[in-house]
């Protein structure tokens, strides 16, 4: 069973590195790894639905000016 909290913790533990690598992108995280970076939330959400159907999605915005952004469907 998918555990979205583990993916959120992964983001928190790697936040600085992820924000440097995926600056201003929305990243789709699954099983404690980045699936892909996107220029919009909609693109990340659409791809997440394609890959993981109706399961929960962990999408984070890598905004270097914000400490935390949590988006959960």
Describe the structure.
With about 70 residues, this protein is of the alpha+beta class. Strands 2-1-3-4 form a 4-stranded antiparallel β-sheet, with helices on both faces. The longest helix is centred in the middle third of the chain and has 12 residues, at about 40-50. The protein is built from 3 helices and 4 strands, in the order ααββαββ. The radius of gyration is 11 Å and the shape is globular. It has one domain (about 5-65).
How many runs of DSSP E, i.e. beta strands?
4
Bulk shape: globular
Number of domains: 1
Extract low-pLDDT stretches: none
Query: If strands are numbered along the chain, what order do they take across the biggest sheet?
Result: 2-1-3-4
Distance between the first and last residues' Cα:
16 Å
Alpha carbon gyration radius: 11 Å
Helix-strand sequence = HHEEHEE
- Tell me the structural class: alpha+beta
Give the % helix.
Answer: 25-40%
Mean pLDDT: 90
β-strand percent reads 15-25%
């Amino acid at each position: 069973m998918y555990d979205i909290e583990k993916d959120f913790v992964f983001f928190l533990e790697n936040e600085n590195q992820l924000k440097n690598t995926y600056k201003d992108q929305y990243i789709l995280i699954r099983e404690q790894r980045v699936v892909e970076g996107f220029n919009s939330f909609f693109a990340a959400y659409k791809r997440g639905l394609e890959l993981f159907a109706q399961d929960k999605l962990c999408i984070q915005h890598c905004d270097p000016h914000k400490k935390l952004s949590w988006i959960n469907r």
